[in-house]
Amino acid sequence: MIFPNDTPAAGLTRREVLCAATAVAAGPAALKGAGAQGTPSTPAAAADPAPQLLTTQLNVNGRLYDLTADARTTLLDALRERLGLGGTKKGCDHGQCGACTVLVDGRRINSCLTLAAMHDGQAITTIEGFASAEQLHPLQQAFLKHDGFQCGYCTPGQICSAAGMLAEAKAGMPSNVTADLRQQPLLSAEEIRERMSGNICRCSAYPNIVAAIEEVAGGRS
Question: What pTM did the predictor assign?
Answer without folding.
Answer: 0.77
